[in-house]
Every structure is written in C-alpha cells, then in structure tokens.
Amino acid sequence: MLTRRLSLAALMAAPFGSAFAQGTAQGPAWPDRVVSFTIPFPAGGSADLLARLVADRMAPLLGAGARMVVENRAGAGGTIGSDHVKRQPADGHAILLGTPSTHGTVPALQPDTTPYDPIADFTAIAILGRAPIALAVPANSPHRDPQSLIAWLRANPGKGSWGSSGSGSVGHLAGELMALSAGGVQAEHIPYRGGAPLVEALTKAEVQYGWEPLGSLAAGARDGLFRLIGMGSPTRHPLFPEVATMQQAGLAGFEASTWNVMLGPKGMPPAIVARLNAAASQVLAMPDVKARLATAGIDAVSDSTPASTAAFVAGEFAKFKDIVARARLNLAR
Question: Rounded to two decimals, what is the model's pTM?
C-alpha cells in the first residue's frame, strides 16, 4: 500500500516537476520585463515602419502585460545596433531587426572590421518581410527593358553611370550582380548617401540607371518621375505587374531582394524562440498588417520557422560573399 501511494504521488508530481524544470531553464516567467527590439538604423525608414508595426501587434500575444519597445541604434551600416544586441543576455528580452546590410553586405565587404559573425553570433527567429530590388531609369531614357539597357552598356563600355544608395548597400550589390550576370558590362558606380538622393538623381537623369529597394522607388515611379524596367524578384511584383523580372530578361538565376529578419543573441532558449516566431507569424498574417506593409513595397512573410530563417540568412550571406569575390570589391569603412 505504501509503495502504491508513493507511486501515485510520483505520477501526480511528474507534470509539475517537468514544468518547474522548464520554468527554471527559462526563468520564472518570460517576458518578465520589457522586450527591447533594436532597429540598427535611424527612425522613419521602411525597416523602422515594419519593426514598430510588428512590435505593437506582437506584445499582447506574448502574455498579459507584455511590452515591446523599439529602440533605434544607428551607425556603421547597422553594425553598431547589431553588435549591441549580440552582447545582450540571450534570455529573449533583446532582439534585433536584421537586414541585408547588417547580415549580408557589410560583413561580406568588411569581414575584418565587422564586430560579429553574422551567422554564429545570432539566433534566427523569423523572417518578417521581403521586397525586391528594382532597376530604374530616368523618365527620358530610351530603355524600356533590361535587355535594351544591357545591350547599350555592352556597346559602350565604361561610358554609362549608375547609382545606388551607397557603397556596400544592397542596391550596390544588385548592380554588381547585374554586371556579372550580363557578362561583365562596365559602367561607373555613383554611391549616393541614401535612397532619397538616388531618387533625386534618377529624377534629374544624373545617371543612366539605378538599383534600389522597391519601397523607395514605388512612389516616384507611379508619379512618372522615372521608370522601372526590371525586378530582382523571381516573379513579377503585384504593385508593378507590367515590369519584367531580371530572370525573364535573360539573366538566369538573378535574384536580389531586401529583407528584414528577427534575430537574437546566440544561445536563446528554443521555447522562447518558438514563442517569438509564433507571435511574429500571427501578426504578419493579419490582413491589415499585410496591406499596410504592401503599400510600402514590403511583402509580409508569415510562414517562416527559426530553421528556415537561419537557412535563409546563411544563404543570403553566402550570395553576397560570392558577389564581392567575383566583382573584386574591397571597401574600407
């Protein structure tokens, strides 16, 4: 009888013991204070819009009274904010908005001065959004498609000029990828200090063409200030269905996009990562959230997993490293 009672007591205690062990591993409760969501760029851009929208909707899904605060830590191509999150405790209270700059182009171009490993030093949580990089030409350009532009560049090596929002930007690497994919066409790259100056340069026809995320170009293209002639996405974009993709233009395998991912310091507990992923996915599936992001040229991603996010970031970093090596780029910070 005593043995039977002890066995029953052990069975009844087992679930509580398991929950206690799990709680001990993760802390008494999570989140037990404010979750800081770091955006490694200034306020006001498309990345900032996405992060604030997601944070506002995610907080109630993490538990009663949970709070998420967006913090902008800009500088050095996003590496200052990224390094800050890397050095925080991996307890789920510090997360980062990663981009092609922070976890692609800058580490690929400046591996010796980037203060973190973009893969090994972070925990992948979720892909939040993606947007194609678009090829634009001035409104008075004779080129109506990528084939025409590339043919002109081949016939006039070194005589053309093109712009991006800065050396090492995702638009810069997309332009280098086009040159490589088109057999090494040559044109002078003019790095502007951001998307707005590039838009102005295209409007004034200061360059023959430019590469920039669709979100920065959509309004000007709709207003006729310049013309979009190519998309870096594998399929045509619903905002501009008349614009062919670079793959359709004959550049096999060409894909260039900007993206936003949610990351944390390495070593985060899997259960917390899963909760963050589930909450982010739920927010990004909300129709009004998807519609608002679409107006900014961002395609919400609501079906990523931590594993698929890790694979995606690793693949993008490898792609940028390959472009840097093939184009023989070497930029000093």
Answer: 0.87
